[in-house]
Write a structure and sequence with these properties.
Mean pLDDT: 81
Strand content: 5-15%
Helix content: 40-55%
Number of helices: 44
Length: about 1350
């Protein structure tokens, strides 16, 4: 990582020490050392020469004040010229014949500029300009023209020391100098070099020069004055430091090969302007209102008026018809007869359609006859089938892993994740703590620092209170000392943490502000008595110079971490936003742990995380609020949630089961004083507890069978399947039970008809209706399984199989049990206790029909007349449902997409608070890696130019584009430019002399195959030479052989803050994947090919689902865009992409899944309703309206579109079929003439079964979920289930009957035959009354 010297060593040391390390004062000409003499300002004349002594009033100065010397410059000899050439190049050695410096000053200047050279050498212009200032100030023979000593002071033995001086520059010089250095980047640290050169991230040209001149570390005060600023010593000074002596950053100096890149020189001359993000999409408005709403309302009003006219015409026609004279009425009758002839002709045309009805009726009758005749064959066979399926539960595996729940194995991001993990290393396990001190007030602090002007006061957040800061420091140390055990050894954090310098160092890549003290509490607690500074000054220094290695204001302490990397302020602190970091409200501690591809190797890390979580849960401090998480936290919380609401779900199921068992029964009551006693005693016979429990058990068996079948196939079940499927199957399965049982209860057995014959007859009538609903659901769910989203796919396949098995059990075993129960009831035996026979006084005589249930009477006698009796009521109902449908359509575009992570967690989860803190306090988002899989040899210049971002690289290179688009963080969601290994590699390998080159090899050591041995940056004593001699380094880059030879050295070289900070081990050790060809004989490397590498940056902070989704979309779009200019496959990778990719196409997925399911409903309905197009359309339209209204309800309840809600929407299609199909079929096969009468009959006969079988069952069960502890249960199960049931009930029992009265399918007269083959249950009005009791 590039780690520059602080401004103390880079600027002040260069400008002062290099200028004053000269011969002793006694060697200078005393005539020229007299400050009282008239100043001489002319060419070849100096202003300072020679070392003096330390200024006692500038205690923070890093060197002695120079002696005043206003005398002639010295001649340069050959040895000095050669020294300058070797140190700085031929340009400076031949520039002058006289100098104001000697060889010792030249050596000092070279040593003092090494760090600055590493900072700026990426851009040759930046380095040349900056160095020219240093060289002119130190050695120029015309020093007196640019400088004037304005004040001196005396000390014993040093009579004339410089106290203050003016340096003349032009405004253009200052501007040009600053602009040439301000954009140079440090890729590994993702910072600008100006941060170190200016002493602060808040820098401009004035503060840049002011800081250089007024720094307390300077032995004397330097005033950079401009040409128009003041009278310059009687006008004898000249502005030789002017803009003509500098290059523009986009120029190409004589000693350079390439122009500086746009990454380091943002110039309008050579660089394209930043792209302009597309404007936000304007909302569709009409007269200031929502355009969609206006259009929908206009359409609705038009249809409303048409319907109103239609109703008025029909009403007028009806009244006119009733007042007809006999002649007209005869004509009407004739017309009616004609209509009957037309209907007869139509029935002849549709003759083939009744084949379906006949076939279904005959098949169900034949099956019922077989099952009831051979019950002891059917039951064992079905039991064996169920047992075989249930045995699959031995292979049952349930997963709550988030990636299995939300990411498709075939998704692009899942493939990218696998590829990234295999090519590089898996993304680390994130362990993070966010700490605030909300009860500690902020405070003002006057900095006594060498890095800022005197009396600078800053506002510091409460977390920097020494007591609080120290307490958090201790907390971090306690965390780092946590030990776990796996039974055989103790596990410390260093056993599992990510160590960027491994194996050379075991220091963890811990990021926190305490790394600015090298995690040493003693250093934090000290005070620099000499400088009168505390830890606050050092914190401020590191905030502005995270790469600083010597804080002169605080014991020369480094800001670098224990692994020699920076602890960036945006990563270590939080909650300051656009304000200064000193106002931070939170401290962020991040401890990355290694993540292995082999899950078994993660066991130690999981154990350590477990102990860490225990510790954090037990830690408490009254002044601190702490949020934390580990990699295993979400998994643990999801597992806890899966069992947290088990009791709630169990109670819900039990209540539903109890309701079904009780409500299937039908008690025959009498009138008079005996009613209460009779009802109680008769209930024991009429009850259907055993039958109801059997029906409920079949629901459970069907669910378990479904799980078992897919367990055989190796499927892993998910939490959603376990939580949702039983509710669904109970809802759709129980309705069929109610339909069948209540049909038999309402039927009167003929005198010569056996119980089995009665059941066969009834089953032939209701079986097709049961098949219609079950088949629609099975096929709809099967179509839903085509979804690529795991949650929807898994739910659909499990639901489809479960519903099918439940239907099979109902038409087989349940039918047989119903026959047994009917015979028990006929034998007047008590339910459950079948051996106990009821007393004679409660027996019902033969030929007597049981009365209607209260719910049946409520529907048939109250609800039907109220709803369908008046055309005005029906018109109002249609209007209201039409309006809600239109408004729901308008709401769809306004639905939010995503799933807030907090909702997936228990309400009391500690992770929820952590996620809240992430959104509130973190300054950057998750890391994002742009991976380039190279199609060309990256050791070749052309291939490099497509990737790199330094001088000579293409303007449209990968790194250049990433830098450009990082300037638009609000649009691209990139917080900063990328870390670019290839540019740092070019800087690292660039020769700079044997003693200063980063890339060095031992002069004498070689391996057995003759290759050189690398000399690491940490080896100062070794006899080393630069890897490439200067004359062999052409074009500013290594050639192909050099590139291949030394790349592994770079990737394994540790950065050293005192010598070479560019070593790539810490920053890029895992960033480059390459393959080497090795000579089998000599074992020497013959070639090296970079196959893939990544360039890391950060997303902006993601605070909600939409931020995560947009971040992924922009990263993917940018990758696709870059591939237009780069001959490489590029993909983005971040740890959260696998969970949010599905939301990019969520709307299409919802439309496709629901569209396919609803289309399946139409096809099945069309076939099983005898190809009655209008009946199928009616059923499908009602299902569609329910689904659309669900979207409207989701908008009102602030429920997002996500896989969980999509599962519920798919489920709503299945449940909606139950609410619609039975009533529609009953209407289609009714024998009444008018649509109104047919609708009344259909609603009266099937409405109560639908109401009791689905609505009441689900309402009772779902209501319990309101007490669930899980937020996802409350929102996506309780609220959505209530909406599904309510919408289904209202549409099925209110809208559908009314719609049928207006637009229902024509009467199918062919469906009614004397044997009752195709009709519905005989009309209750034709049934005999109960003896001595009224049915009403």
């Amino acid at each position: 990582m590039a780690s520059p010297l602080s401004v103390t060593t880079v600027v002040v040391t260069v400008l002062v020490l290099a200028a004053v390390l000269t011969p002793a004062a006694g060697q200078s000409d005393t005539n020229y050392s007299d400050p009282t003499r008239q100043r001489v300002h002319r060419e070849n004349w100096c202003m300072m020469y020679g070392n003096g002594a330390m200024n006692p009033n500038r205690t923070k100065a890093t060197g002695a004040a120079p002696n005043f010397y206003n005398g002639p410059a010295k001649d340069i000899d050959d040895s000095t010229r050669d020294l300058i050439k070797n140190m700085f190049g031929e340009k400076y050695s031949n520039e002058w014949d006289k100098l104001c410096c000697d060889p010792s000053q030249i050596l000092t200047l070279h040593a003092s500029t090494l760090a600055a050279y590493q900072l700026l050498k990426k851009c040759s212009v930046s380095w040349d300009n900056f160095f020219s200032l240093l060289f002119n100030f130190t050695c120029s023979p015309h020093q007196s023209l640019l400088m004037n000593v304005t004040s001196t002071f005396s000390l014993p033995y040093y009579p004339n020391l410089v106290l203050e001086a003016d340096v003349l520059v032009t405004d253009g010089y200052k501007s040009k100098m600053y602009n040439s250095v301000k954009d140079v980047s440090l890729p590994a640290a993702n910072l600008k070099a100006i941060v170190a050169l200016c002493g602060s991230s808040d820098c401009n040209e004035e503060t840049f020069f002011t800081f250089i001149g007024s720094s307390p570390q300077s032995p004397f005060l330097i005033n950079f004055i401009t040409e128009t600023g003041k009278n310059h010593d009687n006008g004898t000074m000249e502005p030789i430091l002017n803009e003509t002596t500098l290059y523009n950053c986009y120029d190409v100096p004589d000693n350079a090969t390439f122009r500086c890149s746009c990454e380091d020189c943002i110039s309008e001359v050579t660089c394209p302007a930043d792209p302009i993000p597309p404007p936000p999409k304007k909302p569709f408005k009409i007269l200031g209102f929502d355009g969609a709403l206006v259009v929908i309302l206009i359409i609705y009003l038009a249809l409303f008026l048409l319907c109103l006219v239609h109703v008025a015409i029909m009403y007028h026609y009806k009244r006119t018809k009733n007042r007809m004279d006999p002649l007209t009425r005869s004509a009407s009758i004739a017309s009616s007869i004609s209509e009957k002839h037309i209907e007869a002709m139509q029935n002849k045309v549709n003759q083939g359609c009744r084949v379906i009805d006949t076939l279904l009726h005959d098949l169900f009758c034949a099956w019922a006859r077989f099952a009831l005749r051979f019950p002891f064959i059917v039951i064992p066979v079905m039991c064996a089938f169920v047992a075989a399926c249930c045995a699959g539960m031995n292979f049952f595996v349930m997963t709550s892993a988030p990636i299995d729940l939300w990411s498709s194995p075939k998704s692009q991001t899942r493939a990218d994740k696998i590829k990234f993990d295999q090519t590089f290393v898996p993304f680390y396990r994130n362990t993070q703590i966010i700490i605030t001190a909300p009860y500690i007030i902020s405070f003002n602090y006057t900095l006594n620092s060498a890095n800022v002007p005197d009396n600078t006061t800053k506002l510091f957040g409460g977390i920097f209170n020494k007591t609080i800061f120290g307490e958090i420091f201790k907390l971090q140390n306690s965390i780092m000392n946590i030990t776990a055990s796996n039974g055989t050894k103790n596990i410390t954090v260093k056993d599992v943490c990510f160590q960027p310098l491994h194996p050379d160092s075991d220091e963890c890549a811990l990021i926190s502000p305490f790394q600015w003290f090298q995690n040493n509490y003693t250093l934090f607690n000290e005070t620099d008595k000499k400088q009168n500074t505390t830890f606050i000054e050092h914190i401020f220094y590191c905030m502005n110079s995270p790469l600083g290695i010597a804080d002169g204001s605080f014991k020369d302490m480094s800001c670098l971490t224990t692994f020699n990397g920076p602890a960036g302020v945006n990563l270590a602190l939080g909650g300051f936003g656009s304000s200064e970091p000193t106002t931070a409200k939170a401290i962020v501690i991040s401890i990355p742990l290694n993540y292995h591809r082999d899950e078994q190797k993660n066991a130690d890390a999981e154990l350590w995380e477990q102990e860490y979580i225990k510790f954090m849960k037990s830690y408490n401090h009254p002044d601190l609020k702490i949020a934390f998480q580990a990699e295993r936290s979400i998994q643990d919380e999801l597992d806890r949630e899966a069992f947290q609401d088990v009791s709630t779900v169990a109670i819900s199921y039990i209540l539903m089961f109890a309701y079904v068992a009780i409500m299937l029964g039908k008690v025959s009551c009498c009138s008079g004083s005996e009613v209460p006693l009779y009802c109680v005693r008769r209930w024991f016979v009429d009850a259907k507890i055993s039958l109801g429990l059997a029906g409920v058990l079949f629901v459970l068996f069907s669910v378990v069978c479904s799980l078992g079948i897919f367990s055989y196939a190796g499927y892993k079940s998910t939490v959603i399947v376990i939580e949702v499927i039983p509710f669904l199957v109970l809802a759709v399965g129980v309705d069929n039970i109610f339909i069948l049982v209540q049909a038999i209860q309402r039927d009167m057995k003929a005198p010569d008809e056996s119980t089995n014959d009665q059941i066969i007859r009834i089953f032939g009538k209701v079986g097709p209706s049961m098949l219609l609903s079950a088949a629609s659901e099975v096929i709809a769910f099967a179509c839903g399984s085509l979804s690529t989203q795991p949650a929807v796919h898994d739910f659909s396949i499990y639901a489809s199989v479960a519903v099918f098995i439940n239907f099979v059990l109902q038409i087989s075993v349940f039918l047989i049990l119903l026959s047994f129960d009917k015979r028990r009831e006929a034998g007047e035996r008590v339910d459950v206790l079948c051996c106990v026979k009821a007393s004679q006084d409660i027996q019902i005589p033969d030929g007597v029909l049981r009365p209607k249930s209260p719910l049946y009477r409520l529907v048939s006698d109250v609800w039907v007349p109220a709803l369908l009796g008046s055309v005005i009521v029906r018109f109002i109902v249609m209007s209201i449902f039409g309006l809600t449908f239109c408004l729901s359509i308008v709401a769809i575009p306004h639905l939010e997409i995503g799933l807030d992570q907090q909702l997936a967690l228990p309400r009391d989860s500690y992770v929820g608070q952590y996620l809240d803190y992430v959104g509130e306090y973190l300054e950057v988002g998750a890391p994002v890696y742009f991976v380039a899989e190279n199609n060309e040899d990256l050791s070749e210049f052309d291939a490099q130019n497509e990737i790199c971002g330094s001088a000579g690289c293409n303007i449209s290179s990968m790194v250049s584009l990433l830098n450009v688009y990082s300037h638009l963080p609000n649009y691209t969601r990139l917080a900063q430019g990328p870390n670019t290994w290839i540019d740092d590699y070019f800087n690292w390998i660039t020769p700079a002399g044997n003693e200063s080159s980063c890339c060095r090899v031992y002069k004498t050591n070689t391996t057995n195959n003759g290759t050189v041995v690398f000399c690491p940056s940490t080896d100062f004593a070794g006899d080393c030479r630069e890897c490439i001699a200067g004359e062999d380094f052409k074009m500013g880059r290594p050639n192909s052989t050099q590139f291949q030879s030394f790349l592994p050295f770079f990737l394994n070289d540790n950065p050293d803050p005192n010598f070479c900070t560019l070593g790539g081990h810490a920053a890029y050790g895992n960033a480059v994947n390459y393959k080497r060809r090795i000579n089998k004989t000599t074992h020497a490397v013959t070639s090296l090919n970079v196959t893939a590498s990544y360039f890391m940056t950060y997303h902006t902070t993601c605070r909600n689902s939409s931020d995560f989704i947009e971040s992924y979309k922009q990263a993917r779009n940018l990758s696709n865009y870059m591939m237009k200019f780069v001959n490489a496959s590029i993909y983005p990778y971040s740890v959260f992409y696998v969970y949010y990719e599905m939301y990019v196409d969520m709307i299409n997925q919802v439309a496709i899944n629901l569209g396919v399911c609803i289309a399946a409903v139409f096809v099945v309905s069309f076939v099983l309703l005898s190809f009655n197009f209008m009946a199928a359309v009616t059923t499908t339209l009602t299902v569609l309206m329910i689904t659309i209204n669900m979207f409207g309800l989701m908008y009102l309840l602030d429920i997002y579109i996500n896989p969980v809600s999509l599962v519920n929407l798919v489920m709503s299609v299945g449940i909606s079929v139950e609410f619609c199909s039975h009533i529609t079929r009953s209407f289609a096969f009714s024998n009444h003439l008018s649509r109104v009468d047919r609708a009344k009959e259909a609603l009266a006969k099937t409405g109560s079964s639908v109401l009791s079988g689905i609505f009441m069952t689900k309402i009772i069960g779902v209501s319990v979920l309101a007490f669930a502890k899980s937020q996802i249960f409350e929102i996506y199960y309780f609220k959505m289930y209530i909406c599904i049931v309510a919408a289904g009930m209202l549409h099925g029992l209110v809208f559908l009957p009314v719609f049928l009265t207006f637009f229902g399918p024509s009467r199918n007269t062919l469906s009614l035959k004397p044997k009752g083959g195709f009709g519905v249950i005989d009309s209750p009005e034709k049934e005999p009354l109960l003896k001595n009791r009224s049915r009403e």
